Amino acid sequence: MNILLVILLISVLLNIIIGMLYFSAKRNPYYVVYDEETKNQLKRRVLHLKEDLESELEEFDVSEWEKQLEKSLEEEIKGL
User: Fold this and answer.
1) Does residue 39 share a domain with residue 23?
2) Which top-level group of life is the source organism from (predicted)?
């Protein structure tokens, strides 16, 4: 009778743990499913951000950036 009680107790505890894991996974899924409209909005936004980044990279002047960096470093050194 004692062994049966232990087995029943273990079974109940396992069921509680499995239930908690199930509801936790149901509340916080690892993936997100988007509807078609949201996917299209995200694609347009990413495309727009990509175009903005490419245009900024084309306008980026490395030599000007290096000059500003050197000037900033000189000011930091003078501040020490």
Assistant:
1) no
2) Archaea
